[in-house]
Amino acid sequence: MDKPYVLGLDLGGTNSVLGIVDARGHVIARTSIKTQQYTDINDYVEALYTEAIKIIEPVGGMDVIRGLGAGAPDGNYYTGNIEFAPNLPWKGIVPFAQLLSEKFGVPCTVTNDANAAAMGEMMYGAARGMKNFIMITLGTGVGSGIIIDGKMVYGHDGFAGELGHTKIDHTENARLCGCGQRGCIEAYASATGVARTAREILAKTTKKTVLRDLNPEEITSYDVFKAAEQGDEVAKEIFDYTGNLLGQKLADFVAFSAPEAIVMFGGLTKAGHWIMDPVVKALNDNVMPIWKNKVKVMFSDLKEADAAVLGASALAWE
Amino acid sequence: MDKPYVLGLDLGGTNSVLGIVDARGHVIARTSIKTQQYTDINDYVEALYTEAIKIIEPVGGMDVIRGLGAGAPDGNYYTGNIEFAPNLPWKGIVPFAQLLSEKFGVPCTVTNDANAAAMGEMMYGAARGMKNFIMITLGTGVGSGIIIDGKMVYGHDGFAGELGHTKIDHTENARLCGCGQRGCIEAYASATGVARTAREILAKTTKKTVLRDLNPEEITSYDVFKAAEQGDEVAKEIFDYTGNLLGQKLADFVAFSAPEAIVMFGGLTKAGHWIMDPVVKALNDNVMPIWKNKVKVMFSDLKEADAAVLGASALAWE
Lengths: 318, 318
Fold this sequence. Notes:
homodimer; alpha/beta; Nucleotidyltransferase, domain 5; 2 domains; 5-stranded mixed β-sheet; 9 helices; 12 strands; globular
């Protein structure tokens, strides 16, 4: 194979990580730039190329690179554009694939970040060999990538798999989500959702808890995890509440595509069994009898730093 | 083409309708038997064959039949079985495709009834030419068939697309569904769900309404439609309530697979704009901005009697 490598780009709100990936899924070199530093997309592409070429030259230059795959918030597989991404410095519609392709001189494919993580999981992670699974990313937001019959679901317009914005609470008092809707699962199972749950539970309970020593606006699922590990009852209550809602919502997803497994990824998974147990219980309490205790629920086994780079790079082999 | 026809079987809880279908999607002949009359599946297959052959002989006998497709409640595409169907006389797992194939001497494929309707809609109905749509059947229950990239979604186990059992109410007081869960949309948007809503609203309101003259257990969406057409405020309220819940749930489905359209089919659709308007409003009020006013919502344009037969027959061309 005269072009043995692909590039995978994980474009995050803070960092953009680019890796050189070989056919066995090894990230043989990586570099990164600060996404927010470039308010002009052309400057971003230029800076990315400048850094990229420093790690590409030592392995043989662009001649050994088959293509580039990018995972980006609000990246659209069909158009190659990044469209109206609220957390990126570039407004409106950015022809991202086209700009990268012109600069790097290789074919470039774009998808959204959660889809990229799902691709990585299917090719190199916990879902290897599975043809039907759903990846849920529990980070700043709640994202998802849906694989059916071995293929990523993009839908009619390329925006399929926005499961973070399905509703767990249909009442008027449901939490407001960043998308403008109320009751989205993202408002409960994301980092900010968990912090909000912590604040709500702390405000209601008189129980002693180490979580009172923290800034309630900044409580992370890892803080809550550490507290739970020490036997903190309030910490456990936070995970039970979060996991119960998430598991109920996963039951809806099972009714949709009957996946073999649901793979969870991102910050909240650091809570281990404290989050897994209530998720699994609520899922099985809320699925139809045919699915009870049949759907695997697992954590990603890819390093968080690698999953999106690997998944994005997978697009470049196609 | 020496085998110009296929057979399509719509196995319903009451009637089993079998049609001979040509390549253009015309049902050139049909016959039916009473499903509940045969408590032994072998008697059912025998009786079906006996009736079928009466309409098959005149067009050239089994030699001109390429195959048989069947849509049945709880029919599984992968296994060809009907599995634990609560509304059919045969208990446990019935190897339906195998029994039919042996009797008729042609390949036989089985799917569930809502999937068959979706296939019919894609090949011959409102969704002709669409590669991404969701069919919602609003009848005794609420069923669904999901098409992604031009293919029916069966999932890991063949049971995908049970959207009637996704939840619209996550509270403890949510309605009990026939599946044993609480809060499923089937408990609200099915025939029995509409009758239940009618009873609840009638119990609460003092408004004059023609619906009080009916047996509340037997109120159908068509009764409510007739009342709404006469300007009955309570009838309108019933459709607004039902449509609002259904539309909210459709918004979840859009976030999953980003379909081009949602096609509604079955008894409730007879209510026309009285149900369509609140569904469309609630859908657009509950989707992310990228999908507002973008997803088509339509009624099936197949005759109800033909959709399942046509859809089931489509399987036999594969």
